[in-house]
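for the recovery benchmark. tokens below, seq after
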């Protein structure tokens, strides 16, 4: 597996000499015992991530790796190597994270650190898997982090090929990745930890997270997948055998357009006329909001009229139409759902 470096100019061995450490400075080589300092820095990183609604910063990720590596005492560990150099060995580091997460003697704090670091690393290694045709099923006893690291991408592709939502196991794997973003007391965290499903709360958290802009495109896709799974399992509480033939057919025939339809708050995935109502309410798909407004509103005529008026009064370039406000009107007129970067429009 190729190593991935966040800092290409890093040397293989980094870190200050013991005698050169300033008070509060972190030695990422692990040569110095700094348990309290490590805990303080990690706390700062998690606080920063929670305040921004995103991932931990790079310095926080490497500090967590240092703290976890110190508990194993191995200088051959991928966690130690990542903390010291910033280079990632995806296969080894996820195996080590999975072991740390599953350790029965581990603390809730350790599992929280594993989740934060796992979320950070997934966004940087998900494209590094050289084998897109890896084994279809996660290994028996595999943790959520292992499944996310090695199989989730393939599972999503397989679900698309069969025109079905993701499986219960992969839904929980997504929950494990998103739990740090939703919060330690969230329904997402409970779902990831125990498998217990609070459908309304999970759906609300998915929508709340979906309203944010993520640097990692996979997060938006995973949110969409989890929402589709929730919709398909609405009446069965995640039993895995309640996906209706209507949903399967709709996904097979219409793909993301039907996924967008299932995300509408008043849609019953078990309704017998689901395909009929989809055909009645679906308007179309657009690559961006400007294309949508150009096609569904008279915005071009309005802009032309404004330009003509401005020219007549000698104020060319000083007056323009506020497309942002036109977008607000459009959203009040139609249901607009973003799936995979495209906008799907439905009659309200």
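predicted aa per position
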């Amino acid at each position: 597996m190729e190593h991935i470096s966040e800092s290409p100019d890093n040397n293989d061995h980094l870190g200050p000499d013991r005698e050169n450490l300033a008070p509060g400075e972190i030695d990422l080589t692990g040569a110095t015992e700094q348990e309290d300092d490590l805990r303080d820095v990690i706390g700062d990183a998690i606080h920063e991530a929670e305040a921004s609604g995103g991932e931990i910063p790079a310095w926080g990720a490497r500090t967590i790796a240092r703290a976890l590596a110190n508990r194993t005492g191995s200088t051959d560990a991928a966690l130690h190597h990542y903390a010291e150099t910033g280079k990632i060995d995806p296969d080894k580091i996820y195996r080590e994270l999975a072991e740390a997460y599953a350790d029965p003697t581990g603390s809730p704090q350790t599992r929280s650190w594993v989740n934060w670091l796992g979320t950070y690393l997934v966004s940087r290694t998900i494209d590094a898997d050289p084998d897109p045709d890896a084994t279809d099923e996660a290994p028996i006893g595999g943790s959520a982090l292992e499944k996310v690291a090695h199989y989730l991408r393939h599972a999503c592709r397989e679900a698309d090929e069969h025109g079905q939502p993701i499986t219960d196991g992969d839904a929980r794997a997504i929950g494990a990745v998103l739990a740090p973003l939703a919060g330690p007391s969230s329904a997402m965290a409970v779902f990831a930890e125990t498998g217990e499903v609070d459908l309304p709360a999970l759906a609300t958290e998915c929508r709340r997270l979906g309203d944010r802009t993520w640097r990692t495109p996979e997060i938006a896709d995973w949110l969409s997948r989890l929402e589709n799974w929730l919709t398909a399992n609405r009446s069965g509480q995640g039993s895995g055998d309640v996906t209706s033939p209507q949903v399967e057919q709709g996904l097979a025939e219409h793909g993301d357009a039907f996924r967008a339809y299932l995300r509408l708050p008043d849609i019953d995935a078990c309704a017998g006329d689901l395909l009929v109502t989809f055909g009645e309410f679906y308007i179309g798909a657009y690559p961006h909001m400007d294309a949508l407004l150009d096609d569904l509103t008279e915005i071009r005529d309005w802009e032309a009229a404004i330009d003509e008026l401005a020219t007549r009064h000698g104020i060319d370039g000083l007056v323009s139409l506020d497309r942002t406000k036109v977008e607000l009107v459009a959203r009040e007129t139609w249901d607009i759902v973003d799936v995979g970067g495209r906008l799907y429009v439905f009659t309200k």
